Amino acid sequence: MIVAGWSFTNACNLRCKHCYNASGKRKDDELTFEESLRVADKLKQAGVDAVNFGGGECALRPDFIDLCKYLHKIGIKISYTTNGTTFHLIERHLDLFSDVGVSIDFADKERHDEFRGVAGVYDRAIETIKKLVERGVDTEIVTCLTKLNCSEEELKKLYNLAKSLNVNYWRLNRFRANGRGIENKSELELTTEDLKRAYEFLSKYIRNILISEPVFRAAFGGKYYIPGDPSGNTAFRIQVNGEVSPSVFLSESGGNIKEKSVDEILDSEIFKRIRDRKPRGKCIKCLAYEHCRGGDAGASYLKYRHFDGPDPLCWINPKKAKKAEKFRPRKWNIHEFYLCTVYIPINKGEK
User: Fold this and answer.
1) For residue 237, which of 26, 38, 48 has the smallest C-alpha distance?
2) pLDDT tens-digit profile of 123-174?
């Protein structure tokens, strides 16, 4: 199983506080459409099963749908993560997408709009979600878990919103301080206690689904496909100019896909390092290390400049950590194999 994330453009119509990509204006060195078609062929040749398009707001590129049509034609599943303001650009092509995730960070209009930097965004995102659900699209609410929304009170509101909208899943990614998030680190960064309380609340709603967030598994158990973090293992990220990183949250590249094959990139030094993690500190005697492997590799690299862990937000007593079940589902969500994320089934989820 291989999933490629793809930042097709840096263009974005919002200015979100946490944006790992610092999206805004389109960059001069973005892959052309012709180059992108050649990249798609390389992905197919390498056995890539799915692509997730995300940040910037990819639909703002006029050739986005044409690229999606080509990927669909050659048999690659497509996931799209959107801020919810560009539905009019994709609504006639919903059959192309395996799932669509819409970002909602607060179940409150004013707070969401302030976080996303533009007034009226919440209402547009909610309307997009309603239309996607009405059309039968596999729909997720996607939340960036930060200091501002990690309380049980805020999470309950978001969970209830997801239930009321009848989406398929609620997916949460914890904040990492890179991109524009560096500017807002003091306001957004989670503590270990913040993450512990948030995950304790979320653990009540986990059912039969893969948990690709290693720390969550180590704390509460769960199912996994590969040990550790998907980054650099079952997943990689194509940047707007073709440079390929092992994690969506890192800029370090294993090579440019315009010049190298996927296999050559996966064999590069940075990819070898992320796959060859070694236990350090409390990881050495942790009962969960077999499946956790030190937690979120990208978070460790951002904090320590190495991938080995322990995860900077791990609060777990290594003697009390949980084991997990290795599992391959018959049906799967693209992000289960793509990054450290927590899926909460809402309308469905049994596999």
Assistant:
1) 48
2) 999 999 999 999 999 999 999 999 999 999 999 999 999 999 999 999 999 9
From residue 216, give the alpha-carbon distance in Å to each of 56, 196, 245.
Answer: 28, 9, 24
Does residue 272 sit in helix, strand or coil? helix
DSSP codes, 118-136: STTHHHHHHHHHHHHHHTT
The H-assigned helical ranges of 52-205 are 64-73, 87-90, 109-116, 121-134, 152-165, 185-188, 192-202
Q: Which residue has the tokens 């079940």?
A: 325
Q: How far apart are CA 106 and CA 124, in angstroms?
A: 14
Residue 92: exposed, middle, or buried by beta-carbon count in 10 A (0-12, 13-18, 19+)? Answer: exposed
Count, residues in the chain: 351
Q: Token digits for 121?
A: 């965004």
Q: Which of helix, strand or coil describes residue 141? A: strand
Q: What is the pLDDT of residue 348?
A: 64
* Residue that the structure tokens 């979100």 belong to: 16
For residues 297-315, give the mean pLDDT.
Answer: 94
